[in-house]
Each structure stands twice: as structure tokens, then as C-alpha cells.
Specification:
single chain, alpha+beta, 5-stranded antiparallel beta sheet, 4-stranded antiparallel beta sheet, 32% helix
Length: 221
């Protein structure tokens, strides 16, 4: 949570006023997580669910949230959100503002959006961007740190807002042979770090029948 004085400084500085972060965090298995704001706040709320389940309520409608989905709650509107009681979500979350903030929360982009792992997905790289923003802000609130965090955050949101372009830019430079089943399976596992994947899921992703996949074991003598 950035101090109010720092937030005010970012609102007026040309380098950060277009897009700035006021709060940022990672919440694993968020048991009993619940927030309701009947009085609107002047920040946008970004939540990216990677595991478990949750929900959010906006304009009188409640929306379920599952893994690999994100949403942005617009500033100035009452809302509520929370974790599922039995399978609480794991989330990356950011509160933000700025003159360009509405670009990332139009009527179309504020809706619940899927970010599914795929052959050309770059989920792990996006996670590295989030962690870099977090680390930079932990280093201190110099203008240089704040400006850099703002720049990286713009890229982070852009990777979600322009998902097709973000993925296609990656696919254009993939070396030949990277799309064979073995490399595809490795990529899929990297995109799902921390999750327990089954052999059936890998088979389905690579397009192979489970009966054709064999696991060899060392010979015991």
C-alpha cells in the first residue's frame, strides 16, 4: 500500500500521472477473503485469479470467477468480491488510477476475461512483470522507481488488453521445432507452474491420446 503522499505525487507528475499503482499484492489461497464497498473509491481494482474460485458483484449482478480469469472493477462504482468458501482463490491484485486507466476498463475490457494457457501464451512472463513491479516498489519511492513501475505496469496491462497481439508477437520468433509435442508439453507445464497437472491434461493439450503416452521407468536389477 503506497503512502497517500506518494500517491498524490504520482497524480501530479507527468511521468506517472497517466498510469500509477496505489496498492499491489499477491494473495495465495485467500480463505475468508471478502470486500464490499458501498461507497465507491476513485481507484480501479484489478484481480487475476490463478487458482481456486471466487466471485465479484457489480451493478447488481454476481459473477463467478475461476482459474485463468481476470477482471477490472471500474472506479466510482459500488462493488463487492470474495473467495469461494471451499476453494478459495489465489490472486494477483492491483489498485490503480491515472488518465489512461479508463483505456483498460471500458465496457468491453472490464468484463471477466479468460487467459488460458496455450501454445503461444506467455503467462509466466507476465507473472515476472508483476513481480518486477512489486520488487521495484519495495526498493523505495524515488521518482525513478515510480516511473519505472508505471512503465512496466503499462506493459503488463497491455499484455492483457491486447492479448492476441501479445501472443502473436511471441509466436513470430519461436525457433523451428518448438511446437512439437514434447516442447508443447514443456511450455504448458511452465505456464502452469505451481499447479498439479495430470497426464490426461498434458495429453489433451498436445492432442495425443492418453493411451499413446508411455512413462518409462529405470530398470531395476
Amino acid at each position: 500500500m503506497l503512502p497517500p503522499a506518494i500517491v498524490q505525487r504520482m497524480k501530479t507528475d507527468p511521468a506517472t500521472s497517466i498510469l500509477y499503482i496505489t496498492d499491489i499484492g499477491y494473495y495465495p489461497k485467500a480463505y475468508n477473503h471478502f470486500r464490499e464497498r458501498e461507497t465507491p473509491i476513485d481507484q480501479y481494482v484489478f484481480i487475476y485469479c490463478t487458482e481456486g474460485r471466487g466471485w465479484f458483484s457489480l451493478d447488481g449482478q454476481k459473477h463467478p470467477v475461476v482459474p485463468n480469469q481476470y477482471f477490472i472493477l471500474p472506479a466510482g462504482l459500488p462493488h463487492a468480491y470474495g473467495a469461494d468458501e471451499k476453494e478459495p482463490w489465489t490472486i494477483y491484485w492491483i489498485h490503480f488510477g491515472g488518465t489512461l486507466a479508463p483505456l483498460y476498463c471500458t465496457h468491453r475490457t472490464c468484463r471477466l476475461t479468460d487467459i488460458k494457457p496455450g501454445m503461444h501464451s506467455r503467462i509466466s512472463y507476465r507473472t515476472e512483470l508483476f513481480e518486477e513491479i512489486f520488487r521495484v516498489l519495495k526498493m523505495g519511492y524515488s521518482l525513478e522507481n515510480l516511473s519505472y513501475a508505471s512503465s512496466v505496469f503499462h506493459h503488463y496491462l497491455g499484455s492483457l488488453r491486447y492479448l492476441r497481439e501479445y501472443r502473436e508477437a511471441f509466436s513470430e520468433h519461436r525457433p523451428a521445432g518448438e511446437e512439437d509435442p514434447v516442447n508443447a508439453a514443456i511450455h504448458y507445464m511452465k505456464e502452469n507452474l505451481g499447479k498439479k497437472l495430470t497426464l490426461a491434461e498434458l495429453a489433451d493439450y498436445t492432442g495425443y491420446s492418453l493411451s499413446l503416452i508411455h512413462i518409462s521407468e529405470p530398470t531395476r536389477r
